[in-house]
Structure formats: C-alpha cells, structure tokens
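Before relying on records like the one below, remember that each one covers exactly one chain. Contacts with other chains, cofactors or solvent are not represented anywhere in the record.
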Amino acid sequence: MSARILLSGTIGIDTIITPTDRADSVLGGSACFAGVAARLFADSVDILSIIGNDFPGDWMESLERQHVNLDHVVRYQGPSFAWTGEYYDNMNKRRTVSAKDEVMVNWEVDVPEVLRDHPVIVASCMVPARQLQFLNQCRNPRLVLTDSMDKWITRQPEMLDAVMKRSHIALMNEDEAKGYAHTDSLLEAGEHILSLGPAYAIIKQGEYGASLFARNARDGLRMFRCPAWPLRSVVDPTGAGDTFLGALSGYLACLPGLAPTFDDIKRGIVHATVAASFTCESFSAAALFTMDRKRFDERLTEYRAMTRWDW
C-alpha cells in the first residue's frame, strides 16, 4: 500500500516542433505526465490544476482512464496554458517559441481542506509563486518533491529559492540547474541546489541520464550517476522529465516510513529513468498512456542487466 500523492502543475495544450516533424495542439502539461507516471506505483494520485474553457473534454476523459483523480482540477473562462517548443538536432536542446501562461500566473491556488494532509506532495513544473502557494497550504508533508523549468527560473528566482527551502528532493534539467547556479559545472550546480535546503538534488541530463547529489557525513558531496535507456530514435522528449518526476514520487511513496535513503532514491531514479524512456517514443503522452506494468517491468529487467557490473 502506498501513501497518497497530491500533485500540482500544468495541464495544457502543446505544439511540438522537432527537426523532422511537428505535432500541433496535443495534450501537454507537467501534471499530466507526472500524474500518470506516479500511478504506475502509487495507489492514489490527486491532481490540483487549472484549465481553460478551450481544453477538450475528451482529453480529460483520457486522463481519467489513467486512474488519476481530476476532481480538483478547476476550469475558468479563458484560454488554457499553452506551450510551443522547438527542439534542435541535438534533442537535449530546445527553445520555447511561445508560452501562453496567463492562467498559471494569475491562478490563486486553493488547496481543498480534504487534500491538505497528503503525506507526499509533488510540485511539478509551474510558476514558482504558484508552487510556493501550493506548498504553503499543505500541512506537514513527509516528502516534498519539486521541479522547475528555464522560463520560470529566470522570471522568479527568489520565489524559486523559497520553493527550494520547502523541498526534500529538488529536480531540474542540466541547463536549468547550471543557469540557476550561474555555473558551467554540474557539480557546482548540484551543490548550489543543496545549499538552498533540499536533502537531495537530481539533475536530469536527457540522453545522458541523471545525476543525484546529497551531502555526506563529512560535509562533502555524495553522487550517483544513472545512464538513460538507449532509444534507437527519439520522437519527442517533451514530458520525459515530468514522467521522471512522477515515477520517482510514485516509487518513493511506496516505501515504508516515507524517509528514503540515498540508496532508495538511487533505485527510484532507475525506475524513473525507465518510465521516462517510454514518453520519448511518441508525441504527447501517447506512448506513456499505452505503457502497462508488464511492459515497464520487462524494460526494467533489461535495463538492470544492461547496467549491472561486478568488481
């Protein structure tokens, strides 16, 4: 039996441009990918978010079929969050072409009383001010995971600092973490995030995997590197980082006591890495939605064999 997860983030409409293709007006948003991935492990995932009057009803139905609870997603009279992104030949690099995020900037987050005592809280990518508003209304969570992205890191760095102070585990991708720390060094970026309060920092590195940082007993830096699942081709990496966050939170929510050790988080990162690989195999969340536990476990077994080595 896993602990209940409360997850907040964006639900929106994406347009994705890759070097070889594009997808216009497809389901997107950090909460979608993270919520579905968390349900791979967790028994209960409640999503708190906001959508506009242009958000398709059948998309909500497709999310509900993934067994995430959308009872606390509010709809307002205006456009939904919409993001257009373009990837370069190196699919680790992208740029934001446009982001219509007025709905997220202006949203006054109100966490219903029934949700405020969830033991596991996940603030996926959204405006740092909204993340902080969300976190401040949750009472004594045992485990808090947060993520952010480039635009909001530069727009509200002080707010993000406050979010870091509330985080047990903080995630960012490599470029964002380095930009946030004003450094070109991965190690210094990890150290900077830890200096702000989180016990663990995870830097996502796309096709190069992920790095975990923590302090050790001698005030040094403890580190773990996890390679990515090797994909023959990447269709669209959008949402892979959110999938990673969701799968990690779902895995950790199943641990007794909700006090994960460094080794627990290492294992969680392995599970999250495998889950994220599915997202890259299609535009939007199509491949993630069709993944089941059997296919996940098969890939996890292959991954373990691929990465295992003995002294």
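The first helix runs from residue 30 to 38.
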